[in-house]
Amino acid sequence: SHMVFAWYLDDSSEDQRLPHKKHPNDPVSLETLSALGVFYWKIDADNYEQEGLLRKIRQERGYTYNDEITIHPDKLPNYEEKIKNFFTEHLHTDEEIRFTLDGGGYFDVRDKSDQWIRIQVTKGDLITLPAGIYHRFTTDQDNYIKVMRLFVGEPVWAAHNRPADDMAARVKYAQDLLQAKPSDAFGVGSTIPSVTLFSLDGSHKVVKVETHEAFANKRVVLFGVPGAFTPTCTARHLPGFVSHMDALRSCGVDVVACVSVNDAFVMDAWAKSVGEGRVDLMLGDGNGVFAQAIGQVKDCSANGMGSRCNRFSMLLDNLVCKLFFVDMAGLENTSAEVMLQHIRS
Predict the structure, then answer these.
(1) How do strand 255-260 and strand 65-71 relate by DSSP bridges?
(2) Per-residue confidence (pLDDT) for residue 1, from 0 to 100
(3) Residue closest to 328 by CA, chosen among 345, 308, 302
């Protein structure tokens, strides 16, 4: 299935409807787009009623209004002038939501350093641009796109051309996004940070496990503990996940992983010590980089343990956090049982 394609624009002033890729191409990932507040779904454009995904997104995000518009020289009066307007850099005071039913085109959005990113949309792509982002749109060389426009409540289509830096929507966007610090912001809806963790392979060699590589396109339950061999972690937290592996699998979880601010050797020895069976990955965050990246560093220096990680559990779906629980003390919210209840509900 085609994922959205995006790239940094070249500097050429040729026809806006050309792809305008740099040589070599400078591609942009979905993570980069979501960090700008731009979100993407792939939907079956021929069969979206039966598929149900669009309905689910509309319910979750409150998209009550929809209409359809065809942009083509025969269908849109003053086509050339309209296309010029669409391609003038502007913002909206509301989220812009477009589901491509047929044809294609390009949305250009500004990144955090004001560079243009071009996002190609084709049939089946649903894209949302946040209120306050500077952007523009053009058809491609086929001069044809048919889109469903969605909106929260009564639609407001007004475009405010740049500069519109004093508008409330722009001020809020700049504050929320351009100054967001990842550690403050990590939670449900966040993309998991790209961090290198450490594990032991079958021959007791230390191997690097990069979170994005290991977890991409998977449903992952990741839980974190303050320390291997510590009482609560050893008596209840890790064994709880080990004993619920089958139940988690049957709920569509591909990977169950445990992380702690320990080295890979200690993590492996700890896994063996809790008896039969084990979770899929025992990951050492010995330098505490991951704990810091998700904003969950725990000061355990009073016990001679330095900086560790708060007890947490999370569900990731293709790198995006869907559930996130933290226990500052004890084991209540972050157990395997609680995670299962939430996944099943």
Answers:
(1) unpaired
(2) 38
(3) 308
- Distance, in Å, from the CA atom of 208 to the CA atom of 222, rounded to the nearest integer, reads 17
Beta bridge partners of 220: 255, 316
- Residue 112: which H helix or E strand, with range? none
Phi and psi for 160 in degrees, rounded to 5?
A: -115, 110
Contact call for residues 177 and 170 (beta carbons, < 8 A): no
- pLDDT confidence of residue 183: 44
CA distances from 34 to 41, 97, 150 (A): 12, 14, 19
Reduced to 3 states, what is the DSSP secondary structure of residue 58? Answer: helix
Percent of residues in the chain assigned helix, strand, coil, to nearest 5:
25, 30, 40
How far does CA 318 lie from the centroid of its chain? 8
pLDDT single digits (tens) 180-232: 544 456 888 899 999 999 999 989 999 999 999 999 999 999 999 999 999 98
pLDDT at position 328, please?
Answer: 87
Phi-psi region of 342 (alpha: psi -120 to 50; beta: other; left: phi over 0): alpha
> Distance between CA 98 and CA 151 in Å, rounded?
9
CB 224 within 8 A of CB 333: no
31 is written with which tokens?
Answer: 């993570």
**What's the CA dihedral at 160, 57, 343, 286 to 10 degrees?**
-30
Please state, rounded to an integer, the average pLDDT across all residues of the chain: 93
Separation of first and last alpha carbons in the chain: 29
Q: What is the per-residue pLDDT across 141-191, written as a single tens digit (0 to 9) for each?
A: 999 999 999 999 999 999 999 999 999 999 999 888 766 544 456 888 899
Q: Which of 286, 289, 241 is nearest to 260 (CA)?
A: 286
**Dihedrals phi, psi of 225, to nearest 5 degrees:** -130, 155
Query: Does 4 score more than 80 pLDDT?
Result: no
- Cβ pair 28, 8 in contact under 8 A: yes
